[in-house]
C-alpha cells in the first residue's frame, strides 16, 4: 500500500491519501473496451482528527473509460486537496466540486467523502440522508460474466447461480458467434427464469448492432447495453426505436447534457432508451442523484451501477441505489476482492447489503489515517 502526502488543516481536522492495488481471488476482468485488467488501482481520500471522520475511494486505472491516466488523476486530486479548506461546510464543498473542471473520478472521490462526512455527523446511514427517510440497506444486483474461455465462462456462471445470483450480464463484442453460443448455453442450462442482458461496450457499428440485436431476440434479453459508441444520438435513437428490446446507455452518459438528451429522446425511441448511472462517470453522488431524480420524473428506467471497484466505492453506489430504488442495479464491484481495506459488504442471495451504521457504513483501515493529531507531512507538488 503506497502512502501519499498528508496535510494539516487545523488542530481538529487533517486529510490524507493512500493508494493501493486491489485484487480478486478468481475473477479475471476483460471487456471489449478495456482489454485485460489485472487489478484495481484504488485511491483513497481520508478526513481525520485522530480517528477517521470520512473516507472515500476512486479507481485510477480507467483511462479506457475517460482518457485520463492514473498519474494525471492522482496529481489532480493532490492539487485540489492542497488548495481546499476542508473545514468548510460539506454541502458548499460538494457544490463547488460538482461545478469544477476536475476529472470525474476525482470529483467522485471528494464528493463521496463529503457525503460520508455529512451522514456521519448526522448519525445516519448515507442512504437515509439521501432519501430523506429510513430505507433498507439491501439491494438486488446483477453479476457480470466477462470475456473469457468457454470453460471459465461456464464455471463462473455456475458459481453465481449457485449463490442465487440469477441476474447475469454477459460482456460481448469480440466474436458475435461465440457470444451467441454462450448465451444459448446459459438459457439451456439455467432456463427461462434466468435474467440475461448483454453489454457490448460500444464495440458494434450501427449496422452490426441492428442485425445482432435481431438475432439476440432468441434469448429474451432484458436489455442490450451500449451497442454502439457514444456520440451519435440520432443513430442510438433510431436503433432503440427499431430494437426488439431496450437499449441501456452507459458510456453515452457522462455529462448533465447527456441526461437531458436521453429524456428528450425517450418518446422517439418508444421508451426503449434506458440509462446506466455510474459515480465514476457522473463525478459522484451529487450529480448522479440529480440525474436519477430527473429520470424518475421523466419515466425513464435507470440503473445505478459501477465499474469493478473496491468496498467504499461500491458502498457509495449501493447507498444511492437504496435511496433511489432504480429498476436495475449493478453493484458487484467488490465481490471477491481479497485485499480490500474496507469491510462490511455482504453478497448473498442475489443481493448486496450494508451494515446499519452512520455514513458509508464500512470498517476502513488506512495506515496514513493513523498519524498523531496535528502532524503535517505535506510536501508541495513540483
Describe the structure.
This protein has 382 residues and is of the alpha/beta class. The protein folds into two domains: 2-123 and 364-369, Enolase-like, domain 1, CATH 3.30.390.10; 138-353, Enolase-like C-terminal domain (TIM Barrel), CATH 3.20.20.120. The protein contains 13 helices and 20 strands. It has helices at 63-66, 70-82, 90-98, 104-122, 126-131, 150-162, 176-190, 206-216, 233-242, 256-265, 279-282, 285-298, 311-324; strands spanning 2-3, 7-8, 14-22, 29-31, 35-37, 40-48, 52-59, 138-140, 143-145, 167-171, 195-199, 224-225, 247-249, 273-278, 302-305, 328-329, 342-343, 346-348, 351-353, 363-364. The strands form five sheets. An eight-stranded parallel beta sheet has the order 9-10-11-12-13-14-15-16. α3 (90-98) packs antiparallel against α4 (104-122), α6 runs parallel beside α7 and α12 runs parallel beside α13 (311-324). The model is unreliable at 368-382 (pLDDT under 50).
Amino acid at each position: 500500500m503506497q502512502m501519499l502526502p498528508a496535510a494539516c488543516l487545523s488542530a481538529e481536522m487533517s486529510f490524507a491519501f493512500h493508494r493501493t492495488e486491489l485484487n480478486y481471488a478468481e475473477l479475471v476482468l476483460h471487456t471489449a473496451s478495456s482489454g485485460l485488467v489485472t487489478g484495481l488501482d484504488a485511491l483513497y481520500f481520508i478526513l481525520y482528527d485522530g480517528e477517521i471522520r470520512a473516507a472515500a475511494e476512486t479507481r485510477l486505472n480507467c483511462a479506457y473509460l475517460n482518457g485520463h491516466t492514473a498519474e494525471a488523476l492522482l496529481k489532480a486530486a493532490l492539487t485540489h486537496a492542497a488548495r481546499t479548506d476542508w473545514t468548510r461546510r460539506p454541502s458548499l464543498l460538494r457544490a463547488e466540486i460538482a461545478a469544477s473542471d476536475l476529472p470525474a473520478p476525482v470529483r467522485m472521490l471528494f464528493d463521496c467523502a463529503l457525503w460520508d462526512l455529512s451522514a456521519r455527523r448526522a448519525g445516519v446511514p448515507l442512504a437515509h440522508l439521501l432519501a430523506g427517510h429510513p430505507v433498507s440497506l439491501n439491494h438486488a444486483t446483477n453479476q457480470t460474466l466477462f470475456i473469457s474461455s468457454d470453460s471459465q465462462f461456464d464455471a463462473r456462471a455456475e458459481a453465481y447461480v449457485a449463490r442465487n445470483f440469477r441476474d447475469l450480464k454477459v460482456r460481448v463484442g469480440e466474436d458475435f458467434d461465440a457470444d451467441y453460443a454462450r448465451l444459448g448455453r446459459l438459457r439451456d442450462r439455467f432456463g427461462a427464469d434466468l435474467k440475461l442482458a448483454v453489454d457490448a461496450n460500444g464495440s458494434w457499428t450501427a449496422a452490426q448492432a441492428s442485425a445482432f440485436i435481431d438475432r439476440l431476440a432468441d434469448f429474451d434479453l432484458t436489455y442490450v447495453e451500449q451497442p454502439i459508441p457514444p456520440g451519435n444520438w440520432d443513430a442510438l435513437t433510431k436503433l432503440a426505436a427499431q430494437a426488439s428490446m431496450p437499449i441501456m446507455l452507459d458510456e453515452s452518459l457522462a455529462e448533465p447534457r447527456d441526461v437531458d438528451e436521453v429524456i428528450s429522446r425517450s418518446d422517439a425511441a418508444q421508451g426503449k432508451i434506458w440509462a446506466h448511472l455510474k459515480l465514476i462517470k457522473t463525478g459522484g453522488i451529487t450529480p448522479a442523484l440529480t440525474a436519477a431524480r430527473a429520470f424518475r420524473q421523466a419515466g425513464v428506467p435507470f440503473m445505478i451501477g459501477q465499474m469493478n471497484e473496491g468496498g467504499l466505492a461500491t458502498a457509495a453506489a449501493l447507498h444511492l441505489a437504496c435511496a433511489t430504488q432504480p429498476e436495475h442495479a449493478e453493484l458487484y464491484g467488490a465481490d471477491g476482492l481479497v485485499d480490500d481495506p474496507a469491510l462490511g459488504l455482504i453478497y448473498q442471495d442475489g443481493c448486496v447489503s450494508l451494515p446499519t451504521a452512520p455514513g458509508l457504513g464500512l470498517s476502513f483501515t488506512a495506515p496514513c489515517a493513523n498519524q498523531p493529531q496535528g502532524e503535517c507531512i505535506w510536501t508541495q507538488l513540483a
